[in-house]
Every structure is written in C-alpha cells, then in structure tokens.
Amino acid sequence: MEKIKVGKIINTHGIKGEIKVQASGNETFDRDISYYIGSDFFEVRTTNSKFRNGVYIVKLKDFNNINDVLIFKSKDIFIDLDDLSDLEENEYYIKDLIGLDVIDEFNNNVGKLVDVLEYEANDVYEVETKNGLISIPSVSEFIIEINIEKKYLKAKIIEGM
Predict the structure, then answer these.
(1) 136 to each of 80, 103, 105, 120, 142, how far by Cα in Å?
(2) Torsions phi, psi for 114 (to 5 deg)
(3) Per-residue pLDDT tens over the stretch 83-123
(4) pLDDT at 125 over 90
(5) How far is residue 47's CA from residue 62's CA, in Å, rounded to a whole number?
(6) What pLDDT sits at residue 161?
(7) What is the pLDDT of residue 88?
(8) Minimal CA–CA distance to 123: which of 91, 89, 101, 147?
(9) Integer Cα distance of 161 and 156 in angstroms
(10) C-alpha dist (Å) from residue 52 to 25, 39, 49, 90, 92
(11) I want to staple 125 with a disulfide (CB 3.0 to 4.6 A). Which of 5, 55, 86, 136 is the partner?
(12) 3-state secondary structure the chain
C-alpha cells in the first residue's frame, strides 16, 4: 500500500515517550490508524495528541520512556494512502498538486508545479519554467483556479516572480 508523508518527528518531549511532530498537512495524529516512521515504515499507533506551540505532542502506544523514542528523532512519519482524511472545499493534497501544468491568466504555459513549500502564513508553489524556478504564493490574489482533474493550475504571474 502506498504511504503518504504527514509529518516529521522533530524531537522528543519529556521523559515519558512523547514525540514532537511537525505536521505537513492537516493530520492531527489522534486517529485510530497505523502511522509509519522512517524509510523502513516502522508501524506505530498513537494514544494521545495535542497541539502546542506549532507542533503536535504525540504519545505513541507502548512507548513509555524517552529512550524508546530517541531513535525516531528527525524521521518522517507516514500513513496509508487510504487513511487520508477528507478535505474541505478548495483544499488539496500536495501529492495531487505536484506535476500540475501551470498556466497564466491568458492561458499561456508557464511551467510545471514541482514543489509546495509550507509556511505558517501560506503555502508557496515552486514552478519549474524554461528560465528556472519561480515561486507563487498560494493566496487568492495569485491563484485563479486549480483543476486536479484536468491537471492544471491557473495563476496570475507578475514581474519578478
């Protein structure tokens, strides 16, 4: 089954086996599903999760000591593709955005969306053009339309992007 990255374990928290997770989407780490850690996809379950200071403090089932979770520090955390939660209107998974054709407001080809940078204020779309990378803020002033089915993103492109 395909795995989707939902966060990165940035540190341990306390001495009772909790970890700090920086989410890379809308996952809250409190669902009764399997989570997978690292490139070997070590399977774990969670018993508790709380959001504090921009990160999730997550308690892993059967891990009760800081020494048990130190090995997870700096590793990515994944879920099964089938466990992705439903999205609100006008929300998209990064995996569905990567590879979209980017066109301007006049339907001219700009390039391909190659990365999504996640920032607290808003995401930024990285687009590979024939002249190199450009960055487009994911805000209504620039994003005109996203059509996953037809595989394009229409954006207002301004000088200096």
Answers:
(1) 30, 12, 13, 15, 7
(2) -115, -15
(3) 987 777 777 888 889 999 999 999 999 999 999 887 878 88
(4) yes
(5) 9
(6) 63
(7) 77
(8) 91
(9) 10
(10) 16, 27, 10, 26, 24
(11) 136
(12) CCEEEEEEEEEEECCCCEEEEEECCCCCCCCCCCEEECCCCEEECEEEEEEECCEEEEEECCCCCHHHHHHHCCCEEEEEHHHCCCCCCCCCCHHHHCCCEEEECCCCEEEEEEEEECCCCCCEEEEEECCEEEEEECCCCCEEEEECCCCEEEECCCCCC
Q: Scanning the structure block, which residue is given the tokens 């809250």?
A: 28
Distance, first Cα to last Cα, the chain: 38
What length does the chain have?
Answer: 161
Q: Which residue has the higher pLDDT, 114 or 161?
A: 114
> Tokens for 133?
């990378």
What would the two tokens of residue 8 be? 């990165």
